[in-house]
Amino acid sequence: MERTDGYGEPTKVMVAVNESSLKGYPHPSISSRSAFEWTLSKLVRSNFSGFKLLFLHVQIPDEDGFDDMDSIYASPADFKRMKAIDKIRGLHLLEFFVNHCHQLGINCEAWIRKGDPKEVICSEVKRVQPDMLVVGSRGLGPFQRVFVGTVSEFCVKHADCPVITIRRNANECPQDPVDD
Amino acid sequence: MERTDGYGEPTKVMVAVNESSLKGYPHPSISSRSAFEWTLSKLVRSNFSGFKLLFLHVQIPDEDGFDDMDSIYASPADFKRMKAIDKIRGLHLLEFFVNHCHQLGINCEAWIRKGDPKEVICSEVKRVQPDMLVVGSRGLGPFQRVFVGTVSEFCVKHADCPVITIRRNANECPQDPVDD
Predict the structure, then answer these.
(1) Which is the most buried residue in A157, B39, B50, B178, by most CB within 10 A?
(2) Considering only alpha carbons, which residue of chain A is nearest residue B12?
(3) Tell me: the pLDDT tens digits for B104-127?
(4) If you compute the radius of gyration of chain B from its CA atoms, what whole number of angstroms results?
(5) pLDDT band at A7 (very low <50, low <70, confident <90, very high)
(6) Do A46 and B46 touch (CB under 8 A)?
(7) pLDDT tens digit string along B51-78?
(8) pLDDT tens digit string along A142-173?
(9) Most A CBs within 10 Å: which of B41, B47, B167, as the mutation test of the A interface?
């Protein structure tokens, strides 16, 4: 039995998180950290038992294999090993969020999926049926968006639950705004 | 001094509300009632002192004058009287939301503006700087949207704060989905 605040099932908030494009694993991107901090300070506040946070991290197969470009794959075991390393990197990212929730006493769950983030997030929303989805956003202008696509815009249009997009603070924006 | 839950300023949630296109004033539209009920049950929950709700009702000048088509305006006083009636209708709508909050002990404020709802909502967000904006939506398909435009889509793109769109329940959808 999960704890609640006496107002029925906790509000299930799915938070999509990814690693920093500048610092790599296990560091969360600026925008996913912003989304998480916003969720804590503006929604959960003091009501730790009223919410349950669901952290979804989607690994992009090609991108996450990039570090291994110089590696030699001589046997099926080598690929298996690479997959294990990917998984461990993702787990370290999720640890950041789960530890934080644990310290505060907030119920949470975290898991990893592989694929195209925007598609996977929407299919996981369909499967898990959270009350809302929180996605971070780099707050890119229209010109920058053309080249990078934005997961948040796709989710706002296609996810089967209310979606809220949290932009990074202007003062946390790196030199190249496409970085995160 | 406002009450809080001990976690800083209450989270300011602006909720855009309008009257029912079927029943008229003082009845709230299905979608604004859904947005309000969602805000209470999923965000505020038991944390009444942690949130402050800001109800904004935007009256559309032409549309709200429609009932007075058969009236005769013979003097400036007649126009003044019409404006007073509009205002009273809007106030009765806001009363629904404010009374509900008052019963629960949730801080709130409510006010009326005139103009194009999507523009006015975004300019009020700029002025009031809420932590988030909740807008109801009829959940219209692309074909229906062409003719009616949607306030929620505009706000998601242009409002200067995080925006969450709450769709009506399918079972509350009237025969003509453009009605609300």
Answers:
(1) B50
(2) A42
(3) 999 999 999 999 999 999 999 999
(4) 17
(5) confident
(6) no
(7) 999 999 999 886 545 555 566 777 778 7
(8) 666 666 668 998 999 899 999 999 998 878 88
(9) B47
Residue B70 corresponds to which amino acid? D
Closest CA relative to residue B18, chosen from B53, B61, B55, B57: B57
| Closest residue to B166, CB basis, from A41, A162, A167 | A162
> What does each C-alpha distance from B30 to B12, B18, B115 come to in angstroms?
23, 9, 21
What pTM value is reported for the model? 0.89
pLDDT exceeds cutoff 90 at A73? no
Per-residue tokens: B136: 């109801």
CA pair distance A54, A101, nearest whole angstrom: 11
What's the one-letter identity of residue A164?
Answer: I
Tokens in use for B147?
A: 């003719």
* Terminal CA-CA length for chain A: 38
Chain A interface test: which of B37, B38, B42 (most A C-beta within 10 Å): B42
Report the C-alpha gap between B18 and B28 in whole angstroms: 6
Of B5, B45, B50, the CB nearest to A7: B45
- Burial-class residue A82 by CB neighbours within 10 Å (0-12, 13-18, 19+): middle
